[in-house]
Write a structure and sequence with these properties.
CATH architecture of one domain: Orthogonal Bundle
Number of strands: 5
CATH topology of one domain: Arc Repressor Mutant, subunit A
Helix content: 40-55%
Number of helices: 7
Order of helices and strands: EHHEHHEEEHHH
Distance between the termini: 38 Å
Largest sheet: 3 strands, antiparallel
Structural class: mainly alpha
Radius of gyration: 19 Å
Low-confidence stretches: none
CATH class of one domain: Mainly Alpha
Strand order of the largest sheet: 2-4-3
Strand content: 5-15%
């Protein structure tokens, strides 16, 4: 079993509001993927002013998603780091309240948009990659008949495999390695498939 990741559990409207903002989600993702950064460094990457990124980092800090990296900071320039490695929430927890459910939908839309941009980037760059990477990358879809319990069990099994690879030591020869993003969506459909 892989090591447990420090995980932020979204349980209230304040955290949902913080995460439902597109720029905040993006800033949090950058800090998690690339490590600590300053508001001005992040601003340069996202095409915003440092005042804007600083404001949104403070909003993320208010709910405990990011924190100052005191070891790197100075009085003039604050460094920020993610407070957790992952975020977890249950959409079902917010179904009874239309306002918070809308926030979960907004947050997921932003995540799906990011995933779509990532896939578009791969399609644009695929020709520049070594054939071994192009052959190894892929996509898949399957139509299954399941119960909520069997879907949870399948998801847990897949997550265990992903964790095993995520937590494995890096390959000794890093000249042929790259970061790989694993995307997974499992959703029930009613009626005909929207093809």
């Amino acid at each position: 079993m892989g090591k447990a990741r420090k995980t932020f559990t979204v349980s209230d409207e304040r955290a949902l509001t913080a995460l439902a903002h597109p720029l905040r989600l993006r800033l949090l993702g950058m800090l998690r993927a690339d490590g600590p950064a300053t508001a001005s460094g992040l601003a340069e990457r996202v095409g915003e002013s440092s005042g804007v990124t600083s404001y949104h980092l403070r909003k993320l800090a208010e709910v405990g998603l990011v924190e100052e990296d005191a070891d790197r900071g100075t009085r003039r320039e604050r460094w920020w780091r993610p407070a957790h490695e992952a975020t977890r929430w249950s959409n079902a927890d917010f179904i009874g309240d239309p306002a918070t459910h809308r926030l979960t939908v907004s947050m997921r839309r932003e995540i799906y948009r990011w995933q779509w941009r990532l896939l578009e980037q791969w399609l644009a760059e695929e020709g520049e990659w070594d054939k071994a990477w192009v052959d190894a990358a892929g996509l898949s879809d399957n139509l299954l008949v399941m119960t909520p319990q069997s879907l949870r069990e399948m998801t847990a099994e897949i997550d265990a495999v992903v964790r095993r690879y995520r937590d494995a030591p890096p390959p000794p020869d890093t000249t042929d390695s790259a970061r790989v993003v694993w995307l997974q969506h499992t959703v029930p459909v009613r009626g005909e498939l929207p093809l």
